[in-house]
Amino acid sequence: MSCWKANFWDASKLTKMLRSNAFDYDDIAASGCRRSLARAWTLKRSISAEAVSTAYYAVFHCLAKTCASTLTFREGTEEYARIYRALDHGPLKTAFSSGPLKDRQVLREVGNIVILLQSERHKADYLPPTRGVFTTRQAQKLVDQARDVISKIEGLGTNDRQTLAAYLLFKNRPS
């Protein structure tokens, strides 16, 4: 299952987009999460705000996929879908600002970019549609950061993936 749920990008369109934008097709094809980044890359030229929003959602769905695949190996089951859907946008900032998600360097780096992208996505989605909310350069930088953080998430070791899933999906209850 790709991180971007829209299924209207057929293989030929995706291949053409990737080649025209100097992406490494083999690298992107290796991960469904990157399909939405390819879309974000194309959109950045004409609609920078949509590119920023799309880049955030690519990262969000990559996090959801990582959590679900860490806690169950049975993709396509109801259990997998329940875990995937358990990730919530609201608590992300709090989760990444405390405990091991803040203390472990790689998870802190992931968290910093996720929080930045989420904040920029709010601007992209909720500010009035005026020209220049994001310049092409700003949007490109955010899309690039999203691509980098997806690579980091996909490269996490088992312990970091388990910690990420536990702290993103479950509330911290004081003892």
Describe the structure.
- By secondary structure, this protein is mainly alpha-helical.
- The protein has one domain (11-169).
- It contains 10 helices and no strands.
- It is globular.
- The termini are far apart.
- The model is unreliable at 1-30 (pLDDT under 50).
Shape: globular
Average predicted confidence as pLDDT: 78
Task: Kindly estimate the percentage of residues that lie in beta strands according to DSSP.
Answer: under 5%
**Total beta strand runs:** 0
Compute the gyration radius: what is it? 16 Å
Architecture blueprint of SSEs:
Blueprint: H1 11-20, H2 25-29, H3 33-46, H4 48-71, H5 78-86, H6 92-96, H7 99-103, H8 105-126, H9 136-154, H10 158-169
Helix pairs in contact: 3-4, 3-9, 4-5, 4-8, 4-9, 4-10, 8-9
Quick summary of this structure?
The chain is mainly alpha-helical and 175 residues long.
Supply database-style keywords.
175 residues; mainly alpha; 10 helices; 71% helix; disordered N terminus
